[in-house]
Amino acid sequence: MAEHITKTPHVLLFPFPTQGHINPIFQFGKRLLSKGVKTTLVTTIYINSTLPHNTTTNMEAISDGFDEGGISSADSSESYVETFKEVGSKSLTNLIKKFQSEGNTIDAIIYDSFIIWALDVAMEFGIKGASFFTQACAVNIIYYHVHKGIITLPLDAPVSVLGLPQFECLETPSFVHNYGSYPGWSELMFNQFANIDQARWVLTNTFYQLEEEVIEWMRKMWKLKVIGPTIPSMYLDKQLENDKDYGFSLFKPNHIECMNWLNDKPENSVVYVSFGSLAQLGPDQMKEIAWGLTDSNVNFLWVVRAAEQGKLPKNFVDEKIPRKGLVVTWCIQLDVLAHESVGCFVTHCGFNSTLEAISLGVPVIGIPQWTDQPTNAKLLDEFWGVGVRVRADENGIARRENLVSCVKKIMEDEEGVVARKNAEKWKELAKGAVDKGGSSYNDIDEFVFELMHNA
Ligand code: UDP
């Protein structure tokens, strides 16, 4: 067959509509743009309505069936997943038809691996699909083994896969060890592989050195491109001068307040605390963290989203932390992690936060909540050596005294020195991966070449 060369390929970027999924796909789009690929970001009508107008990005919105309130307005995970599939596939079909009627070719759809029906829609039009995995390969591979029935649920024994460390039951993703919880989300995770063999590419937001064993295994199965970490270039390789932030915040950051406060603090003296964009901590857990931070007697910057602030202990912000702590509703996390006064990151271990800590060389204290976080926390602690985990009690609560002891380990003890050294090592490797000639750089180049040559 004669090779067809598309000079400026056009791809749709279609993330799952949450902050932690939009960031990596949108970032990857910036790398593509810099290599001559035209991109259009497809979000939902609801997400689109919450964003400040961004003129530099080509954007289109489709309906997920929840145009007024988005995911959080759905009754249950099942109802969201079902409606998104039903309404979303029709809406995506209409979008593609609209592009076609305008003579605007689509060469590929890069869709979130959670949205497998996007590939079915793409194939109806003869468009190639690239399944984009936003979670760690280790997590994906556990889900793959569940999908194939090799790991059977309910789980009754630790999990050992490929070259990874053994995961105790509670260290597997919550949808695996807490069988039956959030059936809609569980189905999304386990079904990511249902039609993957028909995807032209499988893209994954990690980097070779970080997950070598699993990546080698995945390469044998699919046409894999390892393209991460998808962190704005100016924090890593600095090749894209204008790429200084994610540029896609669903929450309004208290940026200046955070930076002014951090500027005043000595080097490596601040504990930064955040549980990401989705986790909802119980009031009990919130209280333990609040008193754990004050008992640690360190400077701390804590992100508590507006909807979660009501769970803070009474008078905590006004009376208890006036000098040592700052609580904000959102920050520009990358700028906080990159700040020299930040000495460690207390994190829920969402995979973006995980990659950001590694890429910016910041040691972590993991307090995982659900989904892939317990597995990421284990990897951060035991596999990558960049931190510790606060052990939860029998009720799943990380108690204040354990937090105090972890803060001491990382901020004062030898364990912290080692974790920081390892984090620094990963930072260099992450930068090397996306820098010219690095493993992710080469995979992105190959992807673009294949797009341009319609290969
Ligand atoms: N984030 C941020 N400001 C905050 C908290 C989080 O910019 O105050 C960003 C963070 O940098 C990351 C994303 O939100 O890119 C959260 O993704 P992650 O996978 O860590 O967690 P999720 O929100 O999906 O649970």
From TrEMBL:
Keywords: Glycosyltransferase, Transferase. Its EC number is 2.4.1.-. GO terms for molecular function: quercetin 3-O-glucosyltransferase activity; quercetin 7-O-glucosyltransferase activity. GO terms for cellular component: cytoplasm. It holds the Pfam family UDPGT. InterPro entries: UDP_glucos_trans, UDP_glycos_trans_CS. It is an enzyme of class 2 (transferase). The keyword tRNA processing does not apply. Belongs to the UDP-glycosyltransferase family. This is Glycosyltransferase.
